[in-house]
Amino acid sequence: MTSTNGTLFWKLRSSTSRSTISCETTILAGNPKPNTDSKHERIECRGGLLEWKRIVLQDGKSAGLECLTINTGAVEVTILPDRGMGLWKCWTNHLELGWQSPVAGPVHPSLVPVHDATGIGWLEGFDELLVRCGLYSNGAPEFNANGTVRHPLHGRIANLPASDLEITLDAENGILDVVGVVSEARFLIYSLELQTRYRFRVGSPVIEVTDIVTNCLSKPGSMQLLYHINIGDPIVDAGATIHAPISSMMPRDARAEEGIDHWNVCDAPTSGFQEQVYLITPAADAQGWSEVMLSSADKSFGCSVQFDTQTLPYLNVWKNTAAREDGNVVGLEPATGFPNPRSIEEEQGRVVQLEAGESKAFHLRLVPLTSSQDVAQAKARSEAIAGRAK
Question: The CATH number of the domain where 23 resides is what?
Fold first, then answer.
């Protein structure tokens, strides 16, 4: 354990040498050099301890995949730099947030056939708590006239590795940032860069996310982004409830229309359940933020997602309350649009346009709810936003 009042910096990965993992510790505030163990750091901050740990998985489809685990004392989170900076799972106060996918992950992206002829090869790597969909397309697969895949399901970003990865720690204020950069480009078509910043605070369970997407070309471009936030057991069971402040909502299809009267209440895990998706324009508070919450049936625990509607103006709710063996899960999905094929979103004006060199910032917070009081407060916040919109 090392005590410091300065700001520390660790460079874990550099785009100049993707194959070399270093843990160079630089003191930005002139303090003594801390322990430079490349796999594990525990730093005493004002207010408590912050901890990070890096491991490379060795077995099965996970072999070679790098995991970065952060512990604030109130939450432990595993980040997957090789999978588009996704969040695999988090644990807080004996509550696990995530889901049990039939896919035994996390899966190394080299083993995910994103461009499979079916268009849905992406599903062979899908088991994270938070996975980004995009950047060029983020919805259902789309095919060319000859039947070949034009845009695969949910795009490519979740199966691309970060080329830069660093950790900074402000020990005086108890703030730890993990920053990664992921590039998605196709020669002659587009070049988009994602800079992700996860912010953690000592003693807090809240996970703050800021993403900046930049069009790196010298000409205008476009992008889409959807945050597929997936929650299963123990929260999702019969009677689990979704609370969201809604300006408007529509079912995606006839199957979703069947459940419209109880769209926000989960069934018990059911073998053969067919997914239902609801497309929402959420209400927002005076600062432009909205909040959607999923709680257990007894309202004793849950998870809330807060997001800035100025750049994430839509919310998709995905109910897949299948048998546990088949992937019992609910998705809360702030997004730039709806998860339709890209051409439909283009027609409806829901594709984000970027000038040459232009960047857009996207903000959200993932808030574990570990008590009935937490759940009640999140519900009250959501209801206050809904009331403001009336």
Answer: 2.70.98.10
**Quick check: 336 and 314 in contact, CB under 8 A?**
yes
First-last CA distance in the chain: 53
Q: Determine the pLDDT at residue 15.
A: 76
Q: Are 245 and 291 in contact (CB under 8 A)?
A: yes
The 10s digit of each residue's pLDDT in 109-168 is 999 999 999 999 999 999 999 999 999 999 999 999 999 999 999 999 999 999 999 999
Q: Using alpha carbons, select from 154, 189, 208 the residue that is nearest to residue 337.
A: 154
Determine the structural domain holding residue 25 and report its residue range: 2-389
DSSP assignment string, 332-351: EEEESS-SS-HHHHHHTT-S
- The helices-and-strands tally (H runs, E runs) of the chain is 3, 26
H-state helical runs in 109-236: none
What local confidence, expressed as pLDDT, does residue 388 receive?
Answer: 76
Strands 76-80 and 66-71: antiparallel
Q: Which residue has the tokens 């259902």?
A: 140
Which H/E stretch holds residue 330?
Answer: strand 328-335
Q: Is pLDDT at 65 greater than 70 in this prediction?
A: yes
What average pLDDT is seen over the chain?
92
Q: CA-based angle 234:238:243, to the nearest 5?
A: 80
Pair of tokens at residue 90: 């988090």
Residue 328, token pair as written in the block: 């019992």
Query: Does the CA dihedral 40-45-50-54 come out positive or negative?
Result: negative
Residue 303 to residue 160: CA distance in whole angstroms: 27
pTM of the model: 0.93
Backbone angles phi, psi at 385, to 5 degrees: -65, -45
Q: Which amino acid is at 58?
A: Q
Share of the chain above pLDDT 90, in %: 87
Taking 60 as the threshold, does the pLDDT of residue 28 lie above it? Answer: no
Count of domains for the chain = 1
Joined together, the tokens standing for residue 69 give 């685990």
